[in-house]
Amino acid sequence: MARQGTLSRPRWNRSTGYALLLLLAAIPVVAFAIGPLTSSSFSLRGPGGPFVAFSAGVLSFVSPCVLPLVPIFLAQISGASIENGRVVASRRVTFTHAVAFVTGLSLVFIALGAAAGLLGSYVLVDNQERLGEIAGSLLVLMGVLIIPPRGRAEPLLSALLLIVLTAVFILLADLGNLQDDRFRLAALGVVLLLVWLRFAGYVQLAFFQRSFEVPIARNHGVGYLRSAFVGGAFALGWTPCVGPILGSILTLAATSGEAVRGTYLLAWYAAGLAVPFLIAGLAVSDAQRVIRRVQRFGPVIEIVSGLMLIVVGVLLVSGRLTALNDFFTFADFNQGL
pTM of this prediction? Predict the structure, then answer.
């Protein structure tokens, strides 16, 4: 009987987590998307301001400006569960990677919004493009190192990956508007060729395996930092759909006299935005049993995770990350916020 009680406790905790997160997500949906409340129902400067900001964050998850983050998010936390083609992460580790990703995204988003009012625009806002280029370059490097080296014993898989990389090259050249930039176009070709050479076993990158890749794969602390970095890097080039509420919050944050209040409301907006992501992360963490059933596809998950980091990195460097929004216009509707 004692053993049964011990086994049932994690299930109760997960159910409580689902219930709490779903409740937090349902309240804004019922109040604003279905109910009678609108953006003018409360004043941002009044006691209802945090609730309005939180609700706007929750409901923005299904906007075409936020949905492009979801595949990157899922690839990141799923890839964190794979090491050398095998599932190694527990539910707790996978969900913690989700928390780290959302934390990085939220902190950078809040910092960018508040920088103009609190620190002066030069510190972050004026250098956002350069910071995006640096973060994008690091993401590209991370993506290359995530690609698993399979050796020369699998020529068919190498040929298939070469076809996929060719399609990725054409897609990124179009999305990033790189057709007229020969240097960046050549750099993209070199990066994707390096990905293929690494997968096919022709390039080992032993230096990075000793100093960078092994800690990421074996040290969960560093792995969490990677997840947080990916979320923060995405925030550097991400432009959320600026509705009436978020526009007002950003205006407050950029005004020196209201910067503290604006930053406070941005934190509530980010908290609301985090709720659906954490629900997705909790669902992925509970899908570990399913992932283990497809153990043989572990290398594919690693490849997809690496390629998605490269795609985001290239679009960050080219300043075209928002081009991903065009693929999610089906979710463009107004929730009253």
Answer: 0.69
* Mean pLDDT rounded to a whole number for the chain: 76
Q: What is each CA distance from 307 to 94, 144, 161, in whole angstroms?
A: 20, 8, 11
Segment 253-273 mean pLDDT: 82
DSSP calls for 244-259: HHHHHHHHHHHSGGGH
Q: How far apart are CA 305 and CA 312, in angstroms?
A: 11
pLDDT at 215 over 80: no
Q: Is residue 139 part of a domain?
A: yes
How many domains, the chain?
1
Cα 232–Cα 264–Cα 70 angle in degrees, nearest 5? 35
Half-sphere exposure in the Cβ direction for 53 (13 Å, CA):
27
Q: Which domain holds residue 122?
A: 17-149+204-326
**Is 160 domain-assigned?**
no
Is the pLDDT higher at 282 or at 253?
A: 282
122: helix, coil or strand? coil
Among 246, 262, 213, 215, residue whose Cα is nearest residue 45: 262
Question: Could you report the per-residue pLDDT of 125-153, keeping only the tens digit for each?
Answer: 567 778 788 888 888 888 887 787 876 66
132, 316 contact by CB (below 8 A):
yes
User: CA–CA separation, 38 vs 35, rounded Å?
Assistant: 9
Domain membership flag for residue 172? no
| Alpha-carbon gap, residue 297 to 144, rounded angstroms | 19
Residue 179 lies in a domain: no
